[in-house]
Amino acid sequence: MSRFLAVAATFTLALTTACSDGAKDSGAAAGEQVVNLYTARHYDSDNALYERFTRETGIKINRIEGRPDELIARMKSEGANSPADLFITADAGALWRAQQAGLFQPVQSETLTARIPDNLREPGGNWYGFMRRARVVAYDAAKVQPEEIDDYAKLADPRFKGKICVRSSDSVYNLSLVGALIEAWGPARTDQWVKSIVANMARPPEGGDRDQILRGRRWRM
Hints:
There is one protein chain. This protein has 221 residues and is mainly alpha-helical. The protein folds into two domains: 118 residues, D-Maltodextrin-Binding Protein, domain 2 (3-Layer(aba) Sandwich), CATH 3.40.190.10; 71 residues, 3-Layer(aba) Sandwich (D-Maltodextrin-Binding Protein, domain 2). It has eight helices and three strands; from the N terminus they run H-E-H-E-H-E-H-H-H-H-H. A three-stranded parallel beta sheet has the order 2-1-3. Helix 2 links the parallel strand 1 and strand 2. The longest helix is centred in the N-terminal third of the chain and has 16 residues. The radius of gyration is 21 Å and the shape is elongated.
């Protein structure tokens, strides 16, 4: 089976286990099966999976989109009356926040357990990771050699003083990255690395990924 098909099959099973029999205030016709999907993702590849799922099952997907924290706040405010069947986001940190808020209920699936590695699923079955994303460094190839930034540790080198643009420290992406580094390096080394990154910043952190790249065009290395 190709990687795409494996992902698609896994995703289908995840949706089916969460599917409601009724409309649950989703605006669907009576008796129509619907998955109310709260999603913080906005990728064409996801839409292709949704369309395939509907073709193969006849189950409609009612998509509600927003930022992770906005969707978490919405589900909390909706409480027990929330129509949400499934929550999809782009970072495990957001899943952790939703779990801490008590918004999940466990799903046990032999197929999901068999196909998704232990490190990509919550032990109690509260969430499953079906895709992995790379945290990459964008750089000017005319000014930086690949071997200079092929390891996160190298970004702390004084060579990059005044040259690094990054999102703010409260970005869930950065929180997840630092958490992963603490697990890999330990607190002491990670603490020193973070301090070195701050010392190398070109400006106070602000904006999203595209903002860092646009501002990075002004670098002089």
